[in-house]
Amino acid sequence: MLKEKIKNIYEKHYKILLGLTFLMLVLAIGQIAYQYTTTGDFVNKGISLKGGSTITFSYENPQNIFSLENALKAEFPGADIGIRTISSAGTVTSYALDSNIQENKKIDALILALKEKAQLQPEDYSVEIVDSSLGASFFMQTAFALGAAFLLMAIVVFIYFRLAIPSLAVILSAFSDIVTTLAVFNLTGIKLSTAGVAAFLMLVGYSVDTDMLLSARVLKRQEGTIMEKVYGAIKTGMVMTTTTLVAVVVALIFVHNEVVKQIMIILFIGLIVDILNTWIQNVGILRWYVEKKK
Questions:
Q1: Other CB atoms closer than 10 Å to residue 254's CB: what's the count?
Q2: Most buried residue, 16, 22, 106, 192, by CB count within 10 Å?
């Protein structure tokens, strides 16, 4: 009975569901705009993107790591400071103190404070400084690559379908995936690293894959009604997405590397969002287009 009710809502009220996906997109854009007006950046950037310093050190008292972090934050109130773990084979091997400090004098002061509080010897730590211009350059190049990917993707999709609205629906769905995923990622408070940027580029591929599957089934196949074609695409597409989600969840549970974990978190959010945008938003636009055309 519940299955029939869901099916009835999905088939008969698709325009309302389509409106809800557009509302989700508007809310996501609003969150990103709020993030930009309050912080000056539309995403929480990590050290590898905005520049700063990383002090990698060994620490004998892991149970006191949060106290150490809070003590350093209190001593350097104007700095953005955080301590993360570095693991190998599921075991914590060392810690990394990330901060937005780049000036030599302030870095020396931070190192001195860390040495005193953690009882470190010179051989127990190493320092890496990332220039802000380097991070900004990488971020701009990535934004350019993302824009180029969307442009080339739009050209290929239009050449394949030769139809403006279905082609734009694919692009809109991919755009909605990226924007909504970015907004949800901002809400987690995690700082985006270069690895996270790569995850967003991967997400474009996943999104377009399911959208192309749907559009090809609905527009290219001759037999069956539009909903029969849609359900056939859903069956294939959900198997693809579920398989990827299982792999992502396994990695989140068993892999303790911070870089891998950030990639998997972004992919997990993006795949859930893609389910909504592909099988509600894109389906709604295609149904509206096909029915109006007939």
A1: 8
A2: 192
